[in-house]
Each structure stands twice: as C-alpha cells, then as structure tokens.
Protein 1
Amino acid sequence: MATLMARTILHLDMDAFYTSVEQRDHPEYQGKPVVVGADPRGGGGRGVVAAASYEARGFGLHSAMPIGRAYRLCPQAVYLRGDMKKYGEVSRRIMAILKDCTDLVEQISIDEAFLDVTGSLRLSGSGRELAAELKKRIRAQERLNASIGIAPNKFLAKIASDLEKPDGLVEVMPGQEEAFLSDLLVERLWGVGPRTAEELHKLGIYKIRDIARLSPAELAERFGKHGHQLHRLARGIDERLVAPEHEWKSLGQETTFERDSDDAGQTRRTLLGLAEAVARRLRDQNLLAGTVTLKVRDEDFVTATRSLTLPDPTDDADEIFATVLRLLDRLKARDRQDRQDRKVRLLGVYASRLQDALTAPRQLRLFHPDEKKRQLNASLDAIHERFGGQGMQRASLLGRGQTGTADDGTD
DNA sequence: TCTGGGGTCCTAGGACCC
DNA sequence: TCTGGGGTCCTAGGACCC
C-alpha cells in the first residue's frame, strides 16, 4: 500500500550568481557594485541587467532593470557583458556536488536546483545538516555562497531559500506551512506575476493569507486553471515531484538589433544566422523540429509570431530558413496599412514539436539528397566545433552591418 | 525608465473529420 | 438542404519564470 510519506525537499539558489563569479575571479571587483548585462554605452545602451551584485543592489539596481536606468542610478558600477560559458562550467561543477548527495536533482536554471533528499536522510542526518554540508562544500570548492530552503515540498522550499538571502538557510517544518506563508505578499506565489498581482490587488488581496478569503470556485472563475493552483499554493500544498529528467519542448534563438532596422537585407542575413544556429543546436542534441516559428518585434514593441508545422521534421538550416521566409511573407501580408512600415527591433527563430532524430520515423524520399545533406551538415558542425562561430559562415552572412547579435565581441 | 534571451504552460478560435 | 456535437490538430498570443 502506498503511504503518503512526508518528503524533504531542498531548493538551492546561488547568490547573485554571475556577479559573484566575477568578483571571485577579479579581486579588484570585490566590495564594488558589479553588473552583468547589456552594454550600458554611457546610458544609451539597449537591454537589461542580467545580474547585480549586492553592492549594486544597494543603489536600487536589480535584474531585468533596463540597463540605461541602471547606469543613471549607478554610473560608477563595473559593467560586464558576462561570460556564459564560464558560468555554465561553474554551474556544472555545483550540480555535480548536488548529485553527489542524491540522484534526485532537478536543475531549473543555471544557478538553481531542487533536491529530494528524503531517501538520504537516514544516512546523512537532518535536512538542515545536509543543507549546511552542501553550502560548505560549494564554498570550499567554488568560493561561492548559496542559499538553501528546506521544506516538505518544492514551492515552500523555493520561498524558504529566498527568505534570508544571501547565504541563507531556512527550514519550514511540516505543520508550519500556512503559518510560514500567511504574512508573505501574493507576488511570492509561483505563477503570480504583475498581471495576476494586479487582479488580486483589485480584489483587496495583498497577502497570501487573504487568498483564503476567496473560495476555490471564485478563484477558478477569475483565474481559470491557474486559480485552482493559487488556492492550493496559498495553503502550502504542492504535490509536484522533483523530476531529474527534462524533455525539451522547444528551442530557439532571438536577437535585438542595436538600432531598429528597415533594411530587408539585414533582416534576411539575421534570419539566416538564427536559422543556422537553431539547426546546429537541433543536430547537436539529436533533435528534429516539427514546427518552425518566426518572431518579429517592431519599433513600437508590438510582437507577432507565425508558425508552420512541417510535413517532414527537420534539423537542416536551409529548410528552416526557407520556412522562416515563407512565414515572413505571411506576416507581411497581414494588416498591410498600419504595421507594414514599422522598423524591426527583434527577430527570433524557434523550433518546437521536437522529436528524437534517432527514433523519429523519417519519411522515405527517394529523390531527395537527404544523406548528402546530412554529411554536409556533419562536416559543418565539426568545423564549428573546432573553430567556433568564426570558423565558417555563409557568404551571405558576411555582409556589412550584419546581425547585431548580443554576443558580438566586447570590443 | 523603456522593455534581453532562454524557456514553459495555458487559452481560444478555426479547420477538419466523423 | 440544413445542421449537432465531440475530438484532434494547428495557430497566435499572452502570462510567467530565471
């Protein structure tokens, strides 16, 4: 008989991850406000703050803040573009420490993970002892601080990890769930962003305990499926399991121009570059895209998407690019008068309905040079692997004023 | 103060089939 | 000779998370 056993879940969250890595590697940055994100360009840059050190937060800076505003608030900060490759490597080493503790590790972002340590407790003492040990090992090995929350479920563990940042360690004991949540703001709930918070505020609901004032039916009527979830979370109920295996649903790449553009050539070159990057990532992970999506955001920040499901899933850049061009035509055909002449701010290419390339049924196409193409793609991938992005590019990508991607060199 | 880039999930409407 | 209802797939958009 299955028993409803209480679980012990840990949520680990690295403190100001990117900027902490930079401060660790550059002693001259220690004690100073540091920002990783877009290039501020003396206040005129485009983009947002990806991470702000605690010193920078003292000036009111936080992640997702427009970089120009950050610069005006704190021009003396050290502004860095960041090194995602390095952060990824640090992340892998930290995750390895976690996996040393239990197999049940679910990584949810570069610097966050859930652990189900229920099965490890007999051997390793209490959840608190285990969490303290993990923090100690991460500090010893990486010279970085983590905050950890311990609770009977994922949602509470996540909130707990955030409560005493940085270097926090907070435990929610079974039975204390509702008391723990009662005084917190609704914005803390998973799935409550600016829109839902505003809706709740209109109803006079600001704290999590206020949600109990509404019946589940009322919540469901106002917020749909989401409302049901809100009611459960507000009572501290969350039955989601820690899921180590993650199946990708979609992947894609997008880029914002440094300046809005009405240059059709630039649009084409950028889309080709994005199609190639997406195709390469598909091949890299042995995936095929069933659906291709084009995303276009114009100078007024109005975003449109068009997507097309292919008769035969693909990992080939030419096919993806050709599909994207068809979608671009479809987009141009819509509401001709009012948006047609808008400049382009952002372009994106996405692949979804992903299938495993090794097991997906490939359509038999006798006259299609599929095999030849696969070999060509494999050689291109090998060159890319060896020489990086600069190894080989299509001639059409080498035009002037090319893609304006955010990962251009820093100088 | 203008708003990145990587994703997930949900909703609603239309096409199409039975 | 006008029309039901269910099911599935596809598409577009939006809220949300880190």
Protein 2
Amino acid sequence: MNLETKYWHLHNHKLFNVLNSAELKEICLITNFKTAKKGEIIYFSHDESNRVYTLKRGTIKIVEIDEKGNEVVKDILQTGDLFGQFTLTNQALDEYAVAVSDYVTCCSFKLDDFERVIERNPALALQYTKWIGFRLKRMENRYANLVFKDVRARLNGFLADWASKEGTNHAHEIILKNYLTHQDIASLICSTRQTVTQLFNELKEKNILDYSRTEIIIKNLAALN
Amino acid sequence: MNLETKYWHLHNHKLFNVLNSAELKEICLITNFKTAKKGEIIYFSHDESNRVYTLKRGTIKIVEIDEKGNEVVKDILQTGDLFGQFTLTNQALDEYAVAVSDYVTCCSFKLDDFERVIERNPALALQYTKWIGFRLKRMENRYANLVFKDVRARLNGFLADWASKEGTNHAHEIILKNYLTHQDIASLICSTRQTVTQLFNELKEKNILDYSRTEIIIKNLAALN
DNA sequence: CTGAAATGGTCAGCCTGCCGACATCCCGTA
DNA sequence: TACGGGATGTCGGCAGGCTGACCATTTCAG
C-alpha cells in the first residue's frame, strides 16, 4: 500500500486527527496495513510481536481463551476501535481477533514505535489516554452489569445498545443487520446459547422484536428497559 | 500544607518520578491534600468537581452504587493508587471512596489542570497511559474471573492475591491484617456474606487457614490454587 | 458497664439459569 | 438436488449459591 493511501486512511481517524500533516506522514511510515475476509483471524496474542492495531473498516470480534480452553467473545469492535497490545504493556491475556464482516482493514504499529510517537506528540498522548480511559469505563460497565443484572436484563441492555449503535430506523421499527449467532451473543452477555434462544423467542412472543438469522427487527425499543 | 511537604509527598510516587524537580514543583502548586480517618468518606462522584486523586498513604475502598441503591465494593486501593476521575472523562459511575485504615492521605488535582500538565509532559503522559492500561487489564481479569470461575475459586484466588500483596511471612504461615468484613469480601468477589462465611469455615476445617476478625493466617497457600 | 449496632454463624427453601441431549431448520457447496 | 455442518428450538433435570430468618458474638459509644 502506498503512502498516499495510508495517509488517507489515517487522516480521518478520531485518534490521529490531532496531528498535523507532517506528524501524520511520519506515522504513515511506521504503519502496517492488513486486510481480511469474514472468518479470517487477524491477530493472535501469543504468536505475535507486540503490536497495536486500529480497525479502519469492518467489524471484528475479540475472543478470549482461558486456561481450560474455553472461549468467550470479549468484544465486538467497529471501525475506529483499537485492539491488540493497546495498553502499552506487553503482557496480554490469551486472545485473538477474527473478522466478522468481509473487507476488514486494519493498520498496526509496533509497540515501541508507537510509544515513541506518543512521547513526541503530547496532544496525541492525551487523546490516546482518554481512549483507554473510555475502554476502562466500558469494561467497568460490563462488570457492573454482570454483578447487578440477571440474564434477561443483560440481553435487553445488549440489544438496546446494539440498536443505538448500528440500528437503522424504518417506520417505528429499528432494523439490525445480524452478524452474530446466539452463541456469540450468549458469550458477550455471559450466558448460554440455549438461554439466549429462549429469551429471543420470549421477546418475539411479546411482540417486542422479530428476528431471523440475518436480521433483528426491534418493534418496541422502550420495552427493552 | 506547605510546598516542601507536598514536594516530598509527590517525589517518590511511581507516576511522578519521571518528572524533573522544576516540573514537580509546578505540579505541587496545583495539588490539594486531604487526610481522613477510618470510616470517613473521601470523595463522592456526584457532588464533586472533577478531580483525580492519588492515594499517598493508607488503604481505601471504592464503593459503587447502582440505580436501585445496591452497593458493591469495587476495589481496595493501596498507597500509590489512583482514583476519582482518572480516566480523564467527566462521566462517572455513582461511586464513593471511604477510608479503611486510619491516617489516610491523598492528594488531588482538578481534571483540567492535570490534563494541562500531561499535555506538557510527554513522559508523564506515557507513564499515565500505562497506568490506566494496567487498570484496564486488572478489570479484564476480574471480569474473566466472574465468567469462568465459581465462587469458591474466586475466593481462593482473592485470598492468594491478597496474601501476595500484603501478607507477611512467619514460619510457613502468611499473616494478613484483616480490615475487611465478610460482607466486603463477598462484595469484591461478587457473592454473598453467608457464602463467604461458609467457605471460610470450610477452609478452616481443611486446615488451610485460620482467621479472626482482625487477622487471617494462611497455613497452606498452595491449597488455594 | 450497658445496650445498641455491627459482624459472624447456620440452616432450610427455593429459583435462576446451566447442562446434556436431541430434533429441526437453514444454507452453501458439490 | 442431495448432503453435511452449523445454527436454532426445546425440554427435563439439577445444582450452585442466593434469600430470608434467626441467633451468637464482638465492638464501641455513651
């Protein structure tokens, strides 16, 4: 990929828009680009040199693995998000990132290079710090959810959240393109496939939503709270 | 509190030791100090101007409150830790900090002031970012614990952790000064008082530990894993 | 010293939601 | 169009651990 394209890609990123064009060009030099199709694995925490990734396009999921080999979908990330060793520490949990949509594009930096850039750009540093702060807040929220709410409330909250992020309005209905399986959703809200299926059918019965394998139509958003 | 004392307080902090003395003196000017005794509340997220705190001495606990008024001990912090609006965003969960030990000392900055300092000190920015990253990692771990482990495993893990942080060795035994109630512990590992009591007695029965209201003596650390 | 409040101990009952098992449905591919 | 694998639907069983209830013990202020 040539520098022009890289420049264009980074230019509009919320994280890098605090940089002037000279600084941006400098970053372009240390950037690596990568593309992936649906189902392809983008990064593996243990067989990878320490890298920070930003997602330029598409949707990916981050899957965490515990000692016993259980897998849990830890996060769904959209365009603009960061993943990999973005905490700037090199001790990672066992996790990998996999493309959920087609045409995923992301760029990455070596941890060391990125640190050096941050050290020279205070505005970027501040921006980046806030970014991570956001992630921490988000994680704290998820934790609180798990502590305070039951499965039903967590699913409802998840759906409301999803709708507000990616839903498109169509005459009192909100339509969601569904790229997640019940298993994925279960994993995200920390439950099991069966329970999710059951709750989905319950919601359908109550006429709160309709769904198929490809989309979810929310008819009564208010009922999810 | 005079500048000399402030200077001395900040000098050895892991976060601020990347600054030279001129920079440090500058920070001293915007610092506020506060002391508290056991049981006193140090900060309340909603009736407080946005501030970042660092704990200079003593132990505190962070308590989170949900919409229904349920309280959960979110964290126990030791000397050197950060709390308050340290993510540099001004939207906080409902929480407060309360002194657990006597003679708690902490210093605080206004969010804006602190941001300005960070913007001018890239090294500090980097250090600070790593700090928050560390907190994020810790939070992710707690989340994973909740997802993967049952209550017994969580309690064992919690005790092992505690022992490694604050335990003092005495002839094959590890002694912990116990400033937490069963209720506190339950809250931290996301369980209930009764269950914690029950598990503690089980551990005592198996001769893995002894405990009273004031201390916990771990006799067989290995058995906790 | 005394009484109230906080903490710890114990138990029966029950409920959420996990687990295993199996049937069915959908969809891409050959 | 037939096949196979992944995704979804459904159900009974059951257990971890929460709930409420009550009492004993310790702590601490007045």
